[in-house]
Structure formats: structure tokens, C-alpha cells
Amino acid sequence: MPELPEVEVVRRGLDRWVTGRTVGEVEVLHPRAVRRHLAGSTDFVARLSGSRFGTAMRRGKYLWVPLDDDASSLLGHLGMSGQLLVQPQDTPDEKHLRIRIRFDDALGTELRFVDQRTFGGLSVHENTLDGLPDTIAHIARDPLDPAFDDAAFHSALRLRRTTVKRALLDQSLISGVGNIYADEALWRTRLHYDRPTATLTRPKSAELLGHVRDVMNAALAQGGTSFDSLYVNVNGESGYFDRSLDAYGREDEPCHRCGTAMRRRPWMNRSSYYCPSCQRPPRTNTPRA
DNA sequence: CGGCGATCCTGAGCGC
DNA sequence: TGCGCTCAGGATCGCC
Fold first, then answer.
1. Torsion over CA of A115, A116, A120 and A124, rounded to 10 degrees?
2. Catalytic annotation on A251?
3. CATH number for the domain including A216?
4. Terminal CA-to-CA distance of chain A, rounded, Å?
């Protein structure tokens, strides 16, 4: 599933293959894929048609392409199964093709939004003065953004009355971290997911942030190699799953640091993977976690 | 209003 | 073999 590094690879692909092109015919094949465009699919198509794509941008897992004079943008989120593909027009439709965007040129390729589970989608929004689509104004900068404020992040953690993994997944604090990267960064920092953020020292939160950046950069280095290949294909698939993960998905397997069997615990309708030896549960909290 | 649980969706995988 | 259950998960909404 696409997380920040995969989305960045898609952004680069978009920049290479669709920036500067003018939109022609647009087809919405599944209404759920444009549900965030509140004015509906007819309006979505109208807003997009005839627009010229600017430089592709990203914040966290959100992607957007400014339209024409930068007053509005085409915003995209891949959800958990979304893909943006640049395909030759005569390529057969993918089974889960949701949106087709053709261009008013002779290049012969089109942009396709393909999404099995339809958690993702595309929409058109006005931009704020910062050039950000207005609906994502509340999304914090991501840790790979040079303007990310480490000190402010630490202060926010201290003020929150929540646990560290929840905080990592909180878009208003830090964006782009998903379940996999959260578990990996917590393992590297030897932090239990239920640790209250208010107990984190400044060095510990700095270490955590460093590990978040490390796992993302490692994944980016992997995924960044594939988009440039011979096929005209902007694809969010990551090489990251070929890498050995240290925490995610490793239930009952030995910890790469100490050999203790890794554990999986239900967490927020999903799972948390951790080493019970390296990542001790907080004493004040759920003792059997 | 901050925190948190429920919810959306579909296919893979697994147990019986 | 095939049915039905569980799981995967980001972001949003509504409730306390």
C-alpha cells in the first residue's frame, strides 16, 4: 500500500509524464472515486477539462497538480490500493479503472486512476494563498519537508494526551506516516506503541523523528529506482516489501536485535507489531499490552 | 474541543 | 471444492 515514499515516486512520475499537458476528455467510471469532489462528477469533469497541468506537488500522502494559473488543483489520494498510471490509450482498461483523463495532445497516453478498494480518489479544489488545495490545509508538513519544524513537533507531542503511535498517525501533527512506517520507526527507537507522548524526552522524540526519516528515505531509495524504467507507467508499487522489514508483519519471528519472538497486537482495528523485550510497555498503561 | 471508536470497500487467504 | 469469515488500512465523521 502506498505510503509517503511510494506517493513521492508517483509524484515524480506525474511530473515527468503529465506536467505541462492540457486535459481533454475526462471519464468518471466510479462515483466513489470522486466523492471528495462535493459538487459531483459532472462538475469534476467540467473543472478539469481544458485545464493545463502544472508541477506535481506532494504533502504526506496527498498529491496535487496545480491547474492553469495555480488558483485550483487536481488533488489525489491513493488510499490503500490506488494507482495513477500513465498508459497508452489503446491499453485495455484495468479491472478497477475508476477515472480516465485524456489529454489534448498527440502523445497518445492517458492518465488513469485505478483503485480496487476505492478508499482513494481525485477531486478539484481551490488553492489557499500557499498554493495548497484548501481541503488539506489542516495536513501537517511531512518529515521529509525541509520546512518541517522538529522543535514544534516535540512540543506538540508533550502537550498531547495520547500515545506515541496515535500521534505518528495524526495528520495534524506529522503527515505521511502509515501503520508500517510507524511500527518500523518505533522498533528502531525501542519505543512501545502505547507510550504516552507526554513522557517523551526531547532526545527521544528527536531519535524517533530520525528513524521515521531513515525508514522513509530507505523506501524512497528503493521505490525511486523503478519509475524510470522503460514502461510509461506511473506506479505506486514499492520495492519496500522486498526489503526486510524489522517489525511490520513479523509476528512470532525473532527480533532482528535480540531474537525475542515479535508480537502482534490488535490496535485501532488494525495491528501493531513490536518486540516485547526491546519495546517495553509503559508501566502506567495497559500492563498486558 | 481533544480524544477516540466506528466506518467505508473488496479481494486474498484460510479453515472447515 | 466451495463457502464464509477475517484481515488489510487512511481519513473522516460523530460522539462523549
1. 40
2. no
3. 1.10.8.50
4. 27
Specify whether A15 is located in the same domain as A112. yes
Which of these, A102, A101, A104, A105, lies nearest to A113 by C-alpha position? A101
A192 annotated to bind ligand: no
In a domain, A234, yes or no: no
Establish if A280 belongs to a structural domain: no
Q: Which domain holds residue A158?
A: 150-228+242-274
Task: Show Cβ contacts of residue A181 under 8 Å, excluding neighbours closer than 6 positions.
Answer: A3, A4, A168, A212, A215, A216, A219
In a domain, A91, yes or no: yes
- In this prediction, residue A218 carries a pLDDT of 87
CA A74, C1' B11: Å apart? 29
Q: Please report the pLDDT score of residue A288 as a whole number.
A: 43
The CA–CA distances, whole Å, from A29 to A34, A95, A115 equal 10, 11, 11
In whole angstroms, B3 C1' to A162 CA is 8
Task: Give the tens place of pLDDT for each residue, A154-173.
Answer: 999 998 889 999 999 998 89
Say how far residue A51 (Cα) sits from the centre of its chain.
Answer: 25
- Chunked in runs of 10, what are the mean pLDDT values of chain A (289 residues)? 82 91 96 91 95 95 91 92 90 91 96 90 92 91 93 92 92 90 93 92 94 90 48 43 76 93 87 93 57
Active-site residue A270, yes or no? yes
| pLDDT score at A231 | 31
Q: How many domains are contained in chain A?
A: 2
